Amino acid sequence: MPNPMISAGQLNRVRASAKFTEYPSLNVSASYLAKEGVELGFQGNIVQPLPAMAGVVQSPQPYIICAAKFHLLRSQSLASLYKAQWELNAIVGDVRLYTDSNTFGEFDLANTAITGVADMTFAGGEPGVVITLTGTYFVNSSMWDS
Predict the structure, then answer these.
(1) CA end-to-end span of the chain, whole Å?
(2) What is the pTM of this model?
(3) Minimal CA–CA distance to 23: which of 84, 103, 66?
(4) How do the pLDDT tens digits run along the chain, 146 residues long?
(5) Are strands 128-138 and 17-20 parallel, antiparallel or unpaired?
(6) Rounded CA gap, 38 and 11, in Å?
(7) What are the Cα distances from residue 81, in Å, to 46, 76, 91, 123, 137?
(8) What is the DSSP letter of 10?
């Protein structure tokens, strides 16, 4: 039986956001997002298990690739700034992603680029355009200490 005295906490729908180091004009806040907000997806293993004759050797990775999807509103000027950016130079540098929980914390991505734009429908029924940024997410930082 779970402890009834432990609070489940809360999520803040309008906390999800992104702040760029080199391109502050691309910063995203909740006002620019469709209901789906921001999504993160990770590619690869944080630790790579390597088969051995009688077990597994664990090999921590120094980074994994992270894809952030921004569900931007096409009706806002920020979406057109992203369009202009991918048409000019899709490499956008470092970004800090804020989640919907101040307890869970942020994600810092290095060397990001606009790597994808989802299909769009222009029939007036869907307000969003999904922009995918892909970058480096550093993990296992203690491995640099040895």
Answers:
(1) 42
(2) 0.89
(3) 84
(4) 677 788 888 889 899 999 999 999 999 999 999 999 999 999 999 999 999 999 999 999 999 999 999 999 999 999 999 999 999 999 999 999 999 998 999 999 999 999 999 999 899 988 999 999 999 999 999 999 87
(5) unpaired
(6) 14
(7) 34, 9, 14, 22, 25
(8) -
Whether the CB-CB separation of 113 and 86 falls below 8 Å is answered with no
Q: Which amino acid is at 108?
A: D
How does DSSP assign 61-119, residue by residue?
A: -SEEEEEEEEEEETTSHHHHHHHHHHHH--EEEEEEEE-S-TTT-EEEEEEEEEEEE--
- Measured CA to CA in angstroms, residue 47 lies from 43, 59, 105, 146 at distances of 12, 6, 21, 17
Helix (H, G, I), strand (E, B) or coil at 26: helix
Residues 6+ away with beta carbon under 8 Å from 97: 16, 17, 18, 38, 40, 68, 106, 107, 108, 109
